Amino acid sequence: MRHITANFSLYQSQLKAKLQSAVSKVHISSDLWTSPHRHGVLAVCARWVDEDYQPRRALLSLPEIRHNHSGKHQSRIIFSTLNIYDIANQLGCHTGDNAASNDTCLQHLSTRLRQDRNQINWDPKRHRIRCILHVINLSLQAFLFASSREALQAALDTGSDITGDELYKPFNFILNDASGGDTTNRPDHMEAQAEHPGGVACKRASIQKVNLPPTSDNKSDNTRRGGWIMVPALRKLHRIGLWLRNSPIHSDAWDERIKLRLGIDNDTRWNSWHRMIDNLIREKAASDNILTSSDWDYLEKTHAFLQPFMSTTLWAQGMTATLSQNLMIMDILLRHYGQKKELYEAEETHDPLMLHSIDMGWFVLDKYCIIWGVPYLRNCPSP
């Protein structure tokens, strides 16, 4: 244990020297994370340009956060980390997600820096960078789940004078809870994608004795998901994923027949819907009897539409991501929305359901650009 502590102190002192010799500001990112053993930790990372003009990054601290995850508590930990490395005077921007606690954290951090002996003037709004991947994911949620433009406008209007999760929460509430799983009020064009009576269960027999899950409405499931419950193809796909995950017998039978794990959608895992659809389409020949032709048509169109979002998400993360690159990504995605809208407006390829989804996603992406200003600081945290 003594040797571990000595090594830690040695490496920490070396990192401190590198940070203090930086020729740029030291930009930080922070993110709360829960370990598989249910321990809450706060990762604090740094990016800077060293004396050889090479970009560098490092993990500064990874303390456990117990009992209190408030922004004020996070600010104390970040401030302590800055003092340990003696880089408060070099602090540049902070990158984080849209959680309201990040706004609170930076406000308290600014106060602490101002009250410090060096009286550092650090503007929490000017130095706030929002994760572009969260914006992309929000736009995709609107594409997949939103039922009305008016609902999105109401959510955005609610947060017109605020930032972070204070805007994000009402938006998500409308997407996930407003419909309450009630499919009776869905738009008329969604009826074209109406579920076949009996759903997946009526075509289950041909997958070699694999009993697929029924698609009868489940109140708790509907209440949790709200938006996608209006799209039968997504509802079926989600329930198949749950059915496979909940039993090793089911997953073994699926693996033997389909030979490719389907996966499961996840609200906090970017592109999880694309991966699920992609896995199913890759083995369509083996699983063609699971869904109706209308379901397959919708999933294939959705898969093609989501592909650029998958690519840009991968491009926008990691060590090589830059602000200028992210501006290009926003332009690419807005252009993608426009091109697909023209495609599905054409008479020979007209699709009201896709047009509705495109309108929802495009609306959100465009509104975020307006709310935050163009250009605005955008990047992805990499704790």
Automatic annotation (TrEMBL):
SUPFAM superfamilies: Ribonuclease H-like (SSF53098). Keywords: Metal-binding, Nucleus, Zinc, Zinc-finger. GO terms for molecular function: zinc ion binding. GO terms for cellular component: nucleus. Residues 185-194 have a biased composition (Basic and acidic residues). Residues 179-199 are annotated as: Disordered. InterPro entries: RNaseH-like_sf, ZnF_BED_domain_contain. This is AC transposase. The lineage of its organism: Eukaryota, Fungi, Dikarya, Ascomycota, Pezizomycotina.
